[in-house]
Design brief:
This protein is α+β, with helices and mostly antiparallel strands. It has one domain: Peptide Deformylase. Helix content is 31%, strand content 25%. The strands form two sheets. The protein has a five-stranded antiparallel sheet. Strands 4-5 form a two-stranded antiparallel ribbon. A hairpin with a 5-residue loop joins strand 6 and strand 7. The relative contact order is 0.17. The structure holds zinc ion. The site of zinc ion has 5 residues, from helix 2.
């Protein structure tokens, strides 16, 4: 397994609609495992393929507590088949928008269908943080970031700050690559 570099906003790859996975073959499974390892190392509770520069419909999620048993979900082509009328609000962050958080409103309970790492079609229901996290990761596959759910004023403030910190990073990167 390998830890992959995570792309941060603004980056055009985070705004693209990802392509479906045809079969979860050994190469895809390896990518899923690398994404999971990358997510644990970050650390994060979810990661979508575009965040590591792969524009395919793959997400990994694990919202279990650090000290408990790990409960990883590796999913290809996830699709929502039911969402609750009831909404919930959760303060979300994103590995591609480091150190920025905002309250996002989403359906509280979901049911989804996906292909697992053994290439089997599965269905699962989720609520709480798991439901929020899955919906956040699925948004990435459509080129949608959590800041797209909040006011333009707040979104632009966050994106401007990220752009500024990226520019500030550039000379450092130059030294590091020498
Ligand atoms: Zn994210």
């Amino acid at each position: 397994m390998a830890i992959l570099p995570i792309i941060t906003a603004p980056d055009p790859r985070l705004k693209k609609v990802c392509k479906p996975v045809e079969t979860v073959d050994p190469e895809t499974r390896r990518l899923m495992e690398d994404m999971l390892e990358t997510m644990y190392a970050a650390p994060g509770i979810g990661l979508a393929a575009p965040q590591v520069g792969v524009l395919r419909r793959i997400i990994v999620v694990d919202v279990s507590k650090e000290d408990g048993q790990r409960q990883p979900h590796m999913m290809a082509n996830p699709e929502l088949i039911r969402v609750s009328d009831e909404d919930t609000s959760y303060e979300e962050g994103c590995l591609s928008l480091p150190e920025h958080y905002a309250e996002v409103v989403r359906p509280a309970e979901i049911k989804l269908r996906y292909i697992d790492k053994e290439n089997e079609i599965r269905e699962m229901a989720a609520d709480g943080v798991l439901a929020t996290c899955i919906q956040h990761e699925m948004d990435h596959l459509e080129g949608i970031l959590f800041v797209d759910h909040i006011s333009a004023l707040k979104r632009n403030m966050i994106l401007r700050r990220l752009l500024k910190s990226k520019r500030a990073d550039k000379p450092m990167a130059k030294y590091a690559t020498v």
